[in-house]
Specification:
single chain, 385 residues, alpha+beta, Butyryl-Coa Dehydrogenase, subunit A, domain 1, Butyryl-CoA Dehydrogenase, subunit A, domain 2, Butyryl-CoA Dehydrogenase, subunit A, domain 3, 4-stranded mixed beta sheet, 4-stranded antiparallel beta sheet, 11 helices, globular, disordered C terminus
């Protein structure tokens, strides 16, 4: 099994490096955090011109028709610069779901606009108690003629004020599993948006309130009451993408920590000569390479729909999430008091790592998912015998 990047993927990696560097590299998240949101518009336009928005969109809708593995080097480079915005939610979540479950009309409208960068997506999933479970979906969609009328609220919706369409899980029946997915366009509905405080200023969080919002039934993605299964499938792609993104952040942390350890002098010698600092950097490097291997395999399993795709992605998500947090925290410690200052870049990575810690589930949740998948596999083998 070959996990090295092929020539085409290496080309995407170099192009991504070039455009991010031309737009300012780590000055992008810094400017965005300071309220200069135009830097995200500028970057989005640049990526769209290169065709990056349509990577996972089929050629018939103006995309490149490539799979999750092609996204790996692109997402790693974005992670290296802590790039803001809903790129992952749009390209790794919305596009594959629309390709697989969208109606012909939905594909023609949304995939075509997505591929050109005209339409951005986010997932409006979380509600009240913060649990990622069908029982926690309480935004109700009541049928009224040819429409659904939505009432309730979603919290911590990433970049809801920047995107054009929200994919919203709603309750459409009495059973716990009676969840459906709706495509809610901001330009044709009136939504109440309220910005929420986020530890990571590069991931703007918004509370979205639905006050009897009418959505045409034609906006139903997939079958009614089958939305949770679709959501789980979509989240696999989202998690695989997040793993690649975090690996990119870990790689930048290793480089930053190593460079600082070789140049910062204390007691007459670089601090990198001290055993405590050496050990931290070595552990960072080991976690990086382990995480990268798991990330590549998760992407490969997703693209090839292998039997172990669920546990492959869950393993990567659990380990990489925790390793990213530890590496980011150790990097701050290596930089000492300077690591806590706004002028240094260490805090961007720590904030991103902590923000993603419980996004779509905690590391413990993913370990539980691994156990459930392994037990299910074992039961399937037993039945087969």
């Amino acid at each position: 099994m070959e996990f090295a990047l092929n020539e085409e993927q290496q080309l995407f990696q170099r192009q991504t490096q070039q455009i991010i560097k031309s737009k300012g590299d780590l000055e992008i998240p810094r400017a965005y955090s300071e309220g200069k949101e135009e830097v995200l518009d500028d970057l989005w336009t640049g990526l769209a011109e290169l065709g990056y928005m349509g990577i996972t969109v089929s050629e018939s809708y103006g995309g490149l028709g490539m799979g999750p593995l092609t996204l790996v080097p692109i997402l790693e480079e974005m992670g290296r610069a802590v790039i803001p915005g809903p790129y992952i939610e749009t390209v790794s979540f919305a596009a594959p779901l629309l390709e697989k479950y969208g109606s012909t009309e939905q594909k023609e409208k949304y995939l075509t606009e997505l591929a050109t960068g005209e339409r951005k997506f986010s997932l409006a999933l979380l509600e009240g108690n913060g649990e990622y479970a069908p029982s926690n979906i309480n935004v109700r969609a009541t049928e009224k003629g040819n429409e659904y009328v939505l009432s309730g609220e979603k919290i911590l919706v990433a970049h809801a004020d920047f995107v054009d369409t929200l994919i919203v899980p709603v309750r459409t029946g009495m059973s716990e599993q009676d969840i459906s997915l709706l495509l809610v366009d901001r330009d044709s509905t009136t939504l109440q948006l309220e910005k929420q405080i986020s530890m990571d200023e590069t991931r703007k969080m918004v509370k979205v309130t639905f006050n009897d919002v009418a959505v045409p039934k034609s906006q139903l993605l997939g079958q009614e009451n089958a939305g949770w299964e679709l959501l789980e499938i979509g989240v696999r792609g989202l998690n695989a993408a997040l793993c690649s993104n975090m690996v990119g952040g870990m790689e930048r942390i290793v480089e930053t920590a190593t460079e600082y350890a070789n140049t910062r002098v204390q007691f007459g010698q670089p601090i990198g000569r001290f055993q405590a600092v050496k050990h931290k950097i070595v552990e960072m490097k080991m976690n990086l390479e382990t995480g990268r291997s798991l990330s590549y395999y998760a992407g490969w399993a997703l693209e090839n729909n292998t039997e172990d795709v669920v546990e492959a992605i869950a393993m990567a998500r659990s380990l990489i999430t925790e390793a990213f947090i530890k590496s980011a925290n150790d990097n701050v410690q290596i930089h000492g008091g300077m690591g806590f200052t706004w002028e240094f870049d260490c805090h961007f990575f720590l904030k991103r790592a902590k923000t993603l810690e419980n996004y779509l589930g905690s590391p413990e949740d993913y370990r539980e998912e691994i156990v459930n998948a392994l037990v299910s596999d074992k039961e399937s083998v037993a039945v087969g015998r």
